[in-house]
Design brief:
There is one protein chain. The chain has 5 helices and 6 strands. A 6-stranded mixed β-sheet has the order 2-1-3-4-5-6, sandwiched between helices. Helix 3 (62-72) links the parallel strand 3 (50-54) and strand 4. Helix 2 (34-43) packs parallel to helix 3. It is α/β, with parallel strands linked by helices. The chain has one domain: Rossmann fold, CATH 3.40.50. It has helices spanning 11-23, 34-43, 62-72, 85-91, 108-120; strands at residues 3-7, 27-31, 50-54, 77-82, 100-103, 128-129. The radius of gyration is 13 Å and the shape is globular.
Length: 136
């Protein structure tokens, strides 16, 4: 299956998401923040199929991480997650770089479906934030 880098500062969410994706057979690597994720990406020369990142994190947030990833590994699919409305608004300008943003809280089924959709390159569904030009 896919190699996924899960970047989330909340340990409980990071563990929940990682285990959910491992149920689908994915090879999951975990990072606590964007800086650690960027280090892992650099060490492995971007050898992931998907970056699943929280937006609001200490040290380097998901938006800064996504901008770095899009520049250095443009083929890497990015899926963001957030529980903060103001953070979703900050991600609004990244529609060309980010596949979608999924809203927290989400269920096991919702995160698995969002990841499967991102990996398949499907159009995002309404479970998450719609970017400019996409229906909500």
């Amino acid at each position: 299956m896919a190699r996924i880098l899960v970047t989330e500062d909340d340990e409980a969410v990071r563990t929940f998401v990682s285990r959910a994706l491992e149920l689908d057979g994915h090879d999951v690597t975990r990072a606590e923040d964007g800086s650690e994720a960027l280090d892992l990406l650099t060490e492995r020369d971007g050898a992931f199929d998907l970056l699943l990142t929280d937006i609001k994190m200490p040290i380097m947030d998901g938006i800064a991480l996504s901008l770095n990833v899009a520049r250095d590994w443009p083929e890497l699919t990015i899926l963001m997650m957030t529980g903060y409305a103001d953070q979703r608004e900050r991600a609004n300008g990244l529609d060309a770089l980010v596949h979608d943003v999924i809203n927290k809280p989400f269920s096991l089924a919702e995160i698995r479906k969002a990841v499967a959709s991102a990996l398949a390159g499907d159009e995002p569904e309404t479970v998450s934030l719609a970017f400019a030009g996409r229906p909500a």
